[in-house]
Amino acid sequence: MNHQTSFTSLFFQYLDIAESVYAPQSVELATQEYLSLIDKLRTKVVASAEEKVDKIQILLDFFFTEAMFSQPDKHDRNLNSQLFSLLHVIQYRTGQQGLLSLVLADFSRALGFESDVLITPSPYLVRISVDDDAYVFIEPSTGYSYDWNEIEALYDVDSVNTEEKVEAIEVETDENILLNIITLYKAVLIAENKFIPAFKICESLLFDEPDNPYLRRERGYLLEQMECKPQALEDYRYFVEKCPDDPIAKMLKLQLDDFNMSQQIIH
Q1: Domain with CATH 3.10.620 in the chain
Q2: Choice between 244 and 123, residue whose per-residue pLDDT is larger
Q3: Residue 3: what pLDDT?
Q4: CA-CA distance, 32 to 245, in Å (whole number)?
Q5: Are 135 and 118 in contact, with CB atoms under 8 Å apart?
Q6: Topology annotation, domain 10-168
């Protein structure tokens, strides 16, 4: 599916990786909702604001009050993998903090701001550039705006000069942010024994990194759970060959040796 927007969309980059996990109808509905929300936001800004600070306030009011995006209660026993799915977050307006940060960053970008997602030592943050070296830092599940002293404390940079402080606030690339979030989604799917969608994500990641031994090992595990033993063993062999000193490789080698021995007995 070809996706075009006037800004660099994290939502569509996410779909480029994870679209195979979802039914086509789910992708279409979430895409329509995403584009509709952006149109509504842009209309509000055009009608009401010219100054950057006013646009940001409208953005936050829209995101948290009108669209009502929020993070679920951490103590809710019904927490599940859907809350780690970006399509679910778009349609139901609730989910894991990292996904909320993607949506908020996209909405900000749609208004013409340079916006990035930060993975701090504590929460995810969305950094919105207001001017040269002037930023707003928003926590995407509450709308809380961090001041510079709080950012310094998060990154433990209060003892260095201003220029070094700005450089110390490391901005992840879109690719790394998406990889982090999709990998977390895959892990939750595996924990829920949802091996087929987890396998699809793994396959998609391997498309870009076909020689990644750790992805090959994980695909092997998923294939084994789906009772595709020969294909799983092929991936396990690749991992053992490429990472012989890894403790898991040593365990897998024993498993492979046992399998080879059983095959010899059968023949």
Answers
A1: 10-168
A2: 244
A3: 63
A4: 48
A5: no
A6: C8orf32 fold (3.10.620)
- Cβ pair 24, 33 in contact under 8 A: no
Residue 164: both structure tokens together? 């070094």
Say how far apart CA 35 and CA 33 lie, in whole Å. Answer: 6
Query: Mean pLDDT throughout 124-140?
Result: 91
Contact 116, 101 (CB under 8 A): no
- Dist. CA 143–CA 89, nearest whole Å: 16
Largest Cα–Cα separation, the chain: 78
DSSP 94: B
pLDDT at 27 over 50: yes
Q: What confidence tens digit (pLDDT) does each residue in 5-17 have?
A: 889 999 999 999 9
Q: Are 158 and 152 in contact (CB under 8 A)?
A: yes
Question: Looking at the chain, which runs of residues are DSSP E strands?
Answer: 115-119, 124-131, 134-138, 145-146
Q: Which two structure tokens, joined as six digits, stand for 257?
A: 């040796």
> Cβ atoms within 10 A of the Cβ of 258, count?
10
